[in-house]
Structure formats: structure tokens, C-alpha cells
Amino acid sequence: MLIRSLIVVLAALSFVAAAPVQAAKCGGGTAGALVGGVLGGLLGAKIDGGRKNTFGTLVGGAIGALAGGAIGKALDRCEQEKLGKATETALNSSSTDGGSSQSWESDSRPGVRGTVSVGAPVTTADGRVCRAARRVNYIDGQEMADAPTYCRTPPNSGWALQAA
């Protein structure tokens, strides 16, 4: 299962690497769908329990591709990176009493900006540390918001987006 997941990741990365030059200059859509699909597929496989059944991988990949594609159409690659860094910074804040907020702003499009706010860390019964987030982005005068939850299992320091 791990080898199959690795092959899927490498194949998707080859598509991203072969994207046109325009995408390298912060193009959105396709790269967002590919990355979202790969990450969703890996998350789905993990949720599926590593069984030799690919159902979780397929469902996670489809959901990830839809979400990544929608964000990718609204934000270019550089803006997606800024949103990702803001999310990571907010999640890794040491605030334990009320949470943390981190803002970002586009370098290329006026008025495209966002804020990521996370709540205080909560330890679940299975030992995971989770933080609820609220991401509010403004794109072309429209507000786009979502409220994902991220968890990690100590001592692992990486945050993983939880399935809704």
C-alpha cells in the first residue's frame, strides 16, 4: 500500500513538474487539483486503515481534487503558498489559551488577502492534538471561508487536515 501511494505521489508530481511555464509564474487551477487529489488520496488511504481496499484512497482523492481545484481557481500558486504558510504558522503557534491568527496578502493582486485563525489545541482521547481553524480569504471582493480541523500525533510535528 505504501509503495502504491508513493507511485501515485510521484506520478502526480511529474504532472506538476511538467506544467506550463505560466503555472510556474503562479498559475492556479490544475496544480491545485493535482496536489489536492494526491493529498486527499493519501489521507483517504490512511483513514481506510491501510487495507488493500482502494475505496478510501479514491474517495479522498476525489474530495481533495475538488477542494484543491476550487481553491486553485481562486488563488494562484504563490497565493496558495502564502495561505499555506499562514496556516502552518498559526497552527504551530505556542498559544495554548485562546488560539492564534495569521494574515497573508497577495504580492500580485490588490485586495486578495486572507486570515487564518486557530483555536487552542485540544487533546483527543486517542492522544492526537487537534486545532480547529477558520480561514477567511477575500478574492475579487468576495469572501471565501472554510473551517477545517488539523490534527497531529505527538511526537510527530506535522499537521494533517482531517476529513470532514
Automatic annotation (TrEMBL):
Signal peptide: 1-23
Membrane topology: Lipid-anchor
UniProt similarity note: Belongs to the rickettsiale 17 kDa surface antigen family.
One of the Pfam families matching this protein, by short name: Rick_17kDa_Anti
Biased composition (Low complexity): 93-105
Organism listed in the record: Sphingomonas montanisoli
Keyword Signal tagged: yes
Domain Glycine zipper 2TM: 31-72
InterPro entries found in the cross-reference section: Gly_zipper_2TM_dom
Residue numbers spanned by region Disordered: 86-119
Entry's localization field: Cell outer membrane
The name this protein goes by in its record: 17 kDa surface antigen
Taxonomic lineage: Bacteria, Pseudomonadati, Pseudomonadota, Alphaproteobacteria, Sphingomonadales
GO terms for cellular component: cell outer membrane
Keyword list, A-Z: Lipoprotein, Signal
